[in-house]
Amino acid sequence: MTPSSHPDAGPDTGTGTEAKAQADTGAGTEPETQADPDTRNRTRATRAHSFNTAAAQYAANRPSYPPALFDTIEELAGRPLTGARVVDVGAGTGIATALLRARGAHVLAVEPGEGMTAEFRRAVPGVPIVRGDGNALPLLDACADFLTYAQSWHWTDPARSLPEALRVLRPGGSLALWWNTDALDVPWIAAQARRIERYFGDEQASKGGTGGKGGVAGSRTELAFEGAPHIPDHAHRVVRWSRHIPVDTHLANITSHSIFLVLGEEGTEAFLAEERAHLLEAFPDGRVEEVYDVLVIVATRS
Fold it and tell me: Among 3, 53, 196, 251, which residue's Cβ finds the most Cβ atoms within 10 Å?
């Protein structure tokens, strides 16, 4: 399917609807800091843009998603992905896009970042991608069966992105949001989270997990539609999965998060040297099991 044949997306030239200055839907999982709105917006913009300088690192080391996630999305949406027209927003390097295509969906990707878009084209050839963001989608009304945001909804402004999602979805279509979050009930993951908090300070410390004090479901579901004109009817589930990888892949994964990307090489290397020692003490064979709770939220347009 070409971009011109998919819901009037426009050509795959990178010159269509350009990313807003804040790159609101850049891929990643990092919550905003608690600050005044102007400072928060500047921080969001800086962190969102940071992924474009590390797109190859992101693509090579970030975790994927389990088949059970897509089974859950289909269950909550009440329809299959096979044959559906799916718009994957904040597609990043195409991790979720490739899996959606493998499920038989007809996928169009939307991504604001130049670096991430270039990596996407290398990773997922043949899938159309247009430049744009979730706050102003370059698509016609009622043209999609699913609108998906993998690790990217939090970069949007729900006051704008929720109405945009409902505009683009067909009646009965579904908005699916999901995040890989750290399973903080796993002792070594909780210990690492505490080290990151100490290194960065509590307000900035989340590299991505939303497990937090209220639990993964209790935190992100409350925040997902904050500021939106209304809270849509929605359901959520948590899907646990894990992967076994070398310590160095794990370290490359966590330092592909924006909190490290904006820190700079010197500060990141200092953290890595200490963290590698902690991990090798816990995993002397040099392999770790990353455990994730994927929070998925599905809202359906009436």
Answer: 196
Two tokens at 82? 């096979």
pLDDT of residue 36: 56
C-alpha distances in Å from residue 72, one per residue of 76, 89, 182, 183, 224: 6, 19, 19, 19, 18
Structure tokens at 101: 């295509």
Q: For tokens 């998060």, what's the residue? A: 257
Residue 142 lies in a domain: yes
Q: Name the residue range of residue 159's domain.
A: 37-183+210-244+294-300
Q: At what angle do helices 265-282 and 247-254 cross, to 10 degrees?
A: 140
SS3 call for 4:
coil
Summarize pLDDT for 168-224 with one digit per residue, the tens: 999 999 999 999 999 999 999 999 999 999 998 854 555 443 333 344 555 577 789
Shortest CA distance to 90 belongs to which of 112, 73, 60?
112
d(CA 272, CA 238): 30
Q: Is residue 76 part of a domain?
A: yes
